[in-house]
C-alpha cells in the first residue's frame, strides 16, 4: 500500500513537471500568426521581479512568448543612462540587446513558402553606429541602426523572408561587441505581415507601382517604416522594388499619417542621393515607352524644392521638381523614351538632402509609378 502511494506521488510529480515544461515552452511559441503585432510584441508583459537583476533579464524564458540569450535588459519608459533619458515610443516597456544578445520567438506561419515581412521599432542607446541582425533560417539581414529619421530617436524597420517551414524561429540579434556590455539597441513593437507578391497588370509593366503592397505599418506610430538596402537580402519588404544603397533607406508611408498622392501607401526618399528606389522591366530595344509618376510632399513639414532624378535605363534621365510648402500636394510627370536593352531599370532618387525644422531628414514622396509601351518611336521628352 505504501509503495503504491509513493508511486502515485511520483507519477503526480512527473505529470506536474511535464505540464510545467509544456507551459514554459509555450511561452515562446505563438499560435498561427496573423498580420499585426506578435504575441507580446510590445514587451508589455515582462519578467517577474525574481527574474531581474536590476534591469538585466536572468531567465531564458522570463519574457512571455520570447526566448532570450546574452545580455538582455528590460527597460521601462523614462529609464536613464548617463543622464540621458531612454524613451519608449508607445506603452511602458522595451528591451535592450547588449553585446551578442538575442531575442527570438517561434512562429507558426499560415502558409509554407509564403513571403512575410517583419516590422520592428528600434533606437540607439549609445552614441555609436549600431546594427541588428534579423533572421529566419536560412535568411538573414543586418540592418544598420545608425542614421536617425525621427525626432524621438525611434525608427521602424522592415525586413522580409520566405517561410521554408510551417514553424520558424524569428531572431533579432545584436552582433556588437562594445566595452560596455549593456550598450546596444533598444527594441520595441515587433509585428509581421503576409506579403502578396504583385503581378504585372495590363496597364502597367511595373509590379506594385502604386506601393499598396508593403510592410506592416503600426497604426499608432506616425513616422512610417524604413525599407533597408537590398545588397544581401533575397526578398524585399516592398515587393517588386529594390533599395539601392550601402547603408541608407527609403521610408514607406501611409495615408493615415502622411499626404499620399494616390491610394493608401507611398514612398518617401529620405536619404538624398545615397539611396535609390529601383525596379527592372522587360523591354524591346528600339520600342518607345512612357514612364509616368507622381512627386509630392508628405504633409509633414518638408518644404522647399523637392527634386527627384528619374532614370529609365542608361539613355533616359530626367530631373523633376516639386515646390513644396510642407503641407501636402503632388504633381504628375511623364517621360517618354526609347528602350536600349532587353531589360530597363527604372530608378528614382532625391536630387538633394532635405531636413525639417526639428532636424530630421525628409524628402520627396513618389507614388503611382506606371510604365507602358507607346505605339510610336518618339524621342524622349518630359511632360509636367
TrEMBL record:
Localization annotation: Secreted, Cell wall
Residue intervals of the DUF642 domain: 36-193, 205-371
Q: Where is the signal peptide?
A: 1-31
Q: Give the main location.
A: secreted
Task: Cite the SUPFAM superfamilies for this sequence.
Answer: Galactose-binding domain-like
- Could you tell me the keywords of this UniProt record? Cell wall, Glycoprotein, Secreted, Signal
Q: What is this protein called?
A: DUF642 domain-containing protein
For this protein's source organism, the top of the classification is: Eukaryota, Viridiplantae, Streptophyta, Embryophyta, Tracheophyta
